[in-house]
Amino acid sequence: MCDIPILYSFRRCPYAMRARMALLVSGTAYAHREVLLRDKPAAMLAASPKGTVPVLVRTDGTVIDESIDIMRWALAQHDPEDWLSRADAALVAKFDGAFKHHLDRYKYAGRYDAEPSRHRAEGLVLLAELDERLAGHDYLGGTTRGFSDIAIFPFVRQFAGVEAAWFAAHAPRRVREWLAMLMASELFGQAMVRLARWTEEQG
Questions:
Q1: What is the CATH number of domain 83-187?
Q2: What is d(CA 95, CA 90) in angstroms, rounded to the nearest whole number?
Q3: Residue 86 half-sphere exposure, CB side, CA atoms within 13 Å?
Q4: Contact 149/134 with Cβ under 8 angstroms?
Q5: How far apart are CA 55 and CA 73, in angstroms?
Q6: Of 3, 11, 25, 2, which is closest to residue 74 (Cα–Cα)?
Q7: How high is the pLDDT of residue 202?
Q8: CB–CB of 171/160 below 8 Å?
Q9: Residues in the chain, pLDDT under 50
């Protein structure tokens, strides 16, 4: 048994991004195992047969394989920025559900046999809701970043990256500024450090 938790992660996955950011801000020590999703290690599949990242294996062997649950677990250990007090479960669920649905069909239209412009427009409607929530302050929960910001922004980042010029011209101003601040943060930079792929031989 490892003496610190093990995190199976993939750098570009938005679910893994938010889990890593919560672990980092909480100061939780963990062993990072960077994987390739097209070649998933047996140890990860043994821990979580569903085969998605992130997967956190705690020191007692128990497994957390939902990113929101990893965030909550990490912050329950230590929450120095008081993120949990600014967790809007309904808003996060809307972006994990409806927004992610439209994002996938916008970004991967061929895979879903979808009309990307329609899903881009639906995503923009949800971004307008975020823009309203950002009126008068920099973050969704007030003047400092919180749980909802970190849970949602990796998906908005992905949406923005599909057609960067379009996003810059059409996305709501406050959303663009909010996204830029979070992406420029030291915490996000730490979460996005490139690490070598982990292999079973490393033990």
A1: 1.20.1050.10
A2: 9
A3: 20
A4: no
A5: 12
A6: 25
A7: 76
A8: yes
A9: none
Q: Please give the C-alpha separations between residue 1 and each of 4, 63, 73, 122, 164, in angstroms, as whole numbers.
A: 9, 13, 19, 46, 45
Closest by Cα among 84, 31, 77 to 54: 31
Class (C level, CATH) for 6-80+191-202: alpha beta
* Under 8 Å between Cβ of 27 and 78: yes
This model's pTM is above 0.85: yes
* Inter-residue contact 183 to 156 (CB < 8 Å): no
For the chain, give every domain's residue range: 6-80+191-202, 83-187
Q: What is the dihedral of CA 10, 15, 19, 21, to 10 degrees?
A: 90
Q: Which amino acid is at 85?
A: S
Exposed, middle or buried: residue 161 (CB in 10 Å: 0-12, 13-18, 19+)?
Answer: exposed
List pLDDT tens digits, range 147-195: 999 999 999 999 999 999 999 999 999 999 999 999 999 999 999 999 9
6-80+191-202 and 83-187 share one fold: no
CB count in 10 Å sphere of residue 89: 11
